Amino acid sequence: MTITRPSTLWRITQGQRRRYGGAILAMASTNLFMFGAPLVGKYAIDMVVNQDVAFAAPPLLWAAGGLTTGDPYIAYLWLSAAAAVLLTAVGGLCLFARGWLAARASEAIVRDLRETLYHRLHHLQAAFYHTADTGDLVQRASSDVETLRVFLASDIVEIGRAVMLVICVTPILFWMDPQLAALSLCVMPFLAAGAYVFFARVKHLFQATDESEAAMTTTLQENLTGIRVVRAFARQAYETERFAARNAEFRNHNHRLIRLMALYWSISDLFAMSQIGIVLFAGALFVMDGSLSVGTLFAFMTYVSMVIWPVRQLGRVLTDTGKAVVSLGRINQVLDEPEESKGRTPAEGRARGEITIRDLHFAYQPGSPVLQGVDLSIAPGETLAIVGPPGAGKSSLIRVLLRLYPYQRGSVKLDGQEISDTNHQWLRQQIGVVLQDPFLYSRSIRGNLAVGRPNAPEADLISACEDAAVHSAIERFPTGYDAMVGERGVTLSGGQRQRLALARALLKDPPVLVLDDSLSAVDTGTEALILEALRRRKGRQTTLIIAHRLSSVRHADRILVLADGRVAQLGNHEALASQPGPYRHLCEIQGALDASIRQDVDAAGERHGHL
Questions:
Q1: Most-buried pick from 94, 311, 326, 515 (CB within 10 A)?
Q2: Are 131 and 203 part of one and the same domain?
């Protein structure tokens, strides 16, 4: 079953309603057998008290007469006890069936809901994650789903049980004694009204408590992810106080909720015990004046006890219902978010790598353009370097190419196919991206490399790592390619993470390779090795290199210079360096910096020689 949006408590039971129907039927059977036990006790007590077999239940009396020729009273009592035990046992089996069916139904629903929510999180538009907190999303996918599971597992059937008990027991009570039956039910309307008022009062507290718990989870997740930054800036005390504030807010909301629940339970207990007391007192008076038998009073007390506590439990059920409604609302907020448009998949299995951009305009927010009128053509197998100052639109151009964000005007085509109409899964399979701060999974090095190509041969895996200049570093680990990488690659250096991410992209062997400042953390010697390996691969794929160091871009076929979201210059290194413009200025700055570094190194060498 796939749960679609928007969902309601009724809608998410679709596909499992037969099981819930079976659970309700089993519950009805439970009540049927359970109701028989007090009647058996009623007839047995009246027979013993009055010492007259005329008060016995005829079927049991007939059965007792056929079992023995001795004292019929003793035989009847033994048979009554056995009948009560048998009825209770069969009722218990039906109760087990009710719980089993409800649990199967609820677990199936919650499994599908988790998978639907997880699938939706993977297909939401990238803009959604600009404002979403990871901890809050984790809360929705775990705690909120668990709240729904608890409700679906027990409370739906519990509501049916309370209603069915009242419907079934009421005729029995009026059949036994109409006057005492009216007294036996007089408090129940107040219990039901109290439960409704409590639900109305407590509902807003569920929302506040859930949101404060999500804020606390977000703070915890954020601090654990950035623990090295916290320690580097000695912010442990500040972050501890920040978490304590979130924890205190959650505690305060929870305390208010607990106080209100305690008030409800104490008042409902008073009403429930008062109802039992009324039945006991009035029934005793009726027994004394002879209008009611002791056995009937026993049956009344048993039936009232069977009904009063489930009715009282409606407050708890309504509480859980309120929690479930709030949790489902928070889940629906995610399910209601629009997914990325899928588009159509081209007939060609693998792209050639030709990229054509015409009059491209793009902005994250209306009125704040990032790319303005970009025109560019990239031939298959060409290496294009993209440079420019921060904020020029370099990374934004890559995000548009990956269809992470929709462009407002213009055209972007891959092999002549407009990417806005192209299936995003197919498009991203054609592009391998290596980011400046790459993400690595908490698994083995081999597992991280196999993300883009799970069944790659060992020789291809090693070749990709050699081209990324990381093979020798991996071999130095005690377990080599099976060495475990910490969360987000925390056990590796920045350069090792970048090179491992590059090897992962090279192993994928996509038609288009994008290096987004992905060599910033490696030394110049290692960078030279990697660039040489990329030059040997020239022609195999279209390569886009975003970099700030000239050493990374000077050997590209062409260099694109972006400034304020526009194409400022386009040409090879020699042509751009020989003419005035931002690229030449960049060359002069980096040339002066390199000269200054060489002078410092030479001076340091001379001082060391004199020593």
A1: 515
A2: yes
- The DSSP 8-state label assigned to residue 485 in this structure reads P
In this structure, the answer to whether residues 315 and 363 fall within a common structural domain is no
Read off the CATH number of the domain in which 543 is found.
3.40.50.300
What domain range is 211 assigned to? Answer: 104-335
Q: Give the model confidence (pLDDT) of 384-402 as tens digits.
A: 999 988 888 888 999 899 8
- In three-state secondary structure terms, 352 is coil
Q: Summarize the confidence of residues 508-530 as an average pLDDT.
A: 83
- 398's torsion region: left (phi>0), alpha (psi -120 to 50) or beta? alpha
- d(Cα 419, Cα 75) in Å, to the nearest integer? 87
Q: pLDDT class for 70, splitting at 50, 70, 90?
A: low
Which residue shows structure tokens 């377990």? 479
User: pLDDT (tens digit, 9 = 90+) per residue, 477-503?
Assistant: 888 888 888 766 677 777 888 888 888
pTM of the complete model: 0.70
Q: Answer yes or no: do 218 and 299 share one domain.
A: yes
Number of structural domains, the chain?
Answer: 2
Task: Provide the b/e sequence for 322-354 (b: ≥16 CB within 10 Å).
Answer: bbbbbbbebbbebbebeebeebeebeeeebbbb
Query: What pLDDT band is residue 55 in, cutting at 50, 70 and 90?
Result: low
Tell me how far apart the alpha carbons of residues 407 and 369 are, in angstroms, rounded to a whole number.
11
Residues whose CB is less than 8 angstroms from the CB of residue 542 and which lie 6 or more positions away in sequence, other chains included: 353, 354, 355, 378, 379, 380, 381, 382, 383, 384, 511, 512, 513
- Are 381 and 276 contained in the same domain? no
Q: Which tokens hold the place of 420? A: 């806005």
For residue 526, the tally of other CB atoms under 10 A from its CB is: 18
With H, G, I as helix, E, B as strand and everything else as coil, classify residue 337.
coil
Residue 83 inside a domain? The answer is: no
Q: Is 19 inside a domain boundary?
A: no
Residue 456 has pLDDT above 70, yes or no: yes
**Is the pLDDT score of 307 beyond 80?**
no
Same domain, yes or no: 367 and 329: no
Tokens 């970099």 sit on residue: 547
Residue 81 lies in a domain: no
Residue 15: what residue type? Answer: G
Per DSSP, what are the bridge partners of residue 371? Answer: 362
* Ranges of H-type helices in 370-493: 394-401, 424-429, 445-449, 458-467, 471-475
Any idea what the CATH number is for the domain that residue 164 is in? 1.20.1560.10
Mean pLDDT (the chain) is: 81
- Rounded to whole angstroms, the Cα distance separating 83 from 67 reads 14
**Which three-class secondary structure state does DSSP give residue 374?**
strand
The answer to whether 152 and 104 are in contact (CB under 8 A) is no
Q: Are residues 327 and 407 in the same domain?
A: no
Q: Are 375 and 297 members of one domain?
A: no
| CA 8/CA 171 separation, integer angstroms | 35
Residue 191's contacts (CB-CB under 8 Å, 6 or more residues apart) are: 268, 271, 272, 275, 308, 311, 312, 314
Same domain, 384 and 305: no
- In a domain, residue 224? The reply is yes
